[in-house]
């Protein structure tokens, strides 16, 4: 794919959304707020990836790689965003199983990180990597998240 084929507005919008969520997480100093912002960041990337997979926007290899890298960076941070004691006193959807089954949570995070480490070059490779990553999201949310 030639650089001229990339849809610059889509890539720029994706990058701006990710930067906005990242900046708000860093500024807060509140670990529950930081992890919520991190999840929003991953969610924004997931939404952009889903749009490509569904054909709502044209596949773009640069944007697809940015989606996976954003998800991967979130996964790399997840293990540090749930310290002991942060399960109490915050308006959070983090389930108690994160702390009572820390080994399981860490394994789920490690699988997510591995699946989002793929390098994609075309829509088929992106669909495979993105599908594995989003399946991990759903499984982790089912096991380690509570809806408020």
Protein described:
The protein is mainly alpha-helical and 148 residues long. It has a single domain (7-144), classed as Cytochrome c/b562 (Four Helix Bundle (Hemerythrin (Met), subunit A), Up-down Bundle), CATH 1.20.120. It is 69% helix and 0% strand. The protein has 6 helices and no strands. Helix 2 (31-53) runs antiparallel to helix 3 (61-78), helix 2 (31-53) runs antiparallel to helix 6 and helix 3 (61-78) runs parallel beside helix 6 (123-144).
CATH class descriptor: Mainly Alpha
Profile the largest sheet: none
The CATH architecture can be named as: Up-down Bundle
Q: Approximately how much helix is present in the residues?
A: 55-70%
Rounded mean pLDDT score: 85
CATH topology: Four Helix Bundle (Hemerythrin (Met), subunit A)
Radius of gyration, Cα only, in angstroms?
16 Å
What's the number of domains? 1
What is the terminal separation in angstroms?
Answer: 44 Å
Number of helices: 6
Low-confidence stretches: 1-6, 21-26
The count of β-strands is 0
What general outline do the C-alpha atoms trace?
elongated
CATH superfamily descriptor: Cytochrome c/b562
Q: Give the structural class.
A: mainly alpha
Q: H/E element string?
A: HHHHHH
What portion of residues belong to β-strands? under 5%
In terms of topology, how is this protein built?
Blueprint: H1 8-28, H2 31-53, H3 61-78, H4 97-100, H5 102-115, H6 123-144
Helix pairs in contact: 1-2, 1-3, 2-3, 2-6, 3-5, 3-6, 5-6
Summarize the structure.
The protein has 148 residues and is mostly helical. It is built from six helices and no strands. It has helices at 8-28, 31-53, 61-78, 97-100, 102-115, 123-144.
């Amino acid at each position: 794919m030639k650089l001229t084929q990339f849809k610059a507005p889509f890539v720029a919008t994706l990058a701006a959304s990710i930067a906005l969520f990242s900046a708000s997480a860093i500024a807060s100093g509140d670990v529950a707020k930081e992890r919520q912002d991190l999840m929003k960041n991953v969610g924004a990337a997931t939404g952009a990836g889903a749009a490509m997979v569904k054909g709502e926007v044209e596949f773009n290899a640069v944007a697809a790689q940015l989606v996976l890298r954003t998800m991967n960076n979130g996964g790399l941070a997840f293990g540090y965003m749930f310290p002991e004691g942060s399960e109490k006193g915050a308006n959070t959807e983090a389930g108690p199983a994160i702390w009572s089954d820390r080994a399981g949570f860490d394994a789920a995070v490690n699988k997510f990180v591995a699946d989002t480490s793929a390098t994609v070059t075309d829509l088929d490779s992106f669909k495979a990597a993105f599908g594995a990553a989003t399946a991990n999201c759903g499984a982790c949310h089912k096991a380690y998240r509570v809806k408020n």
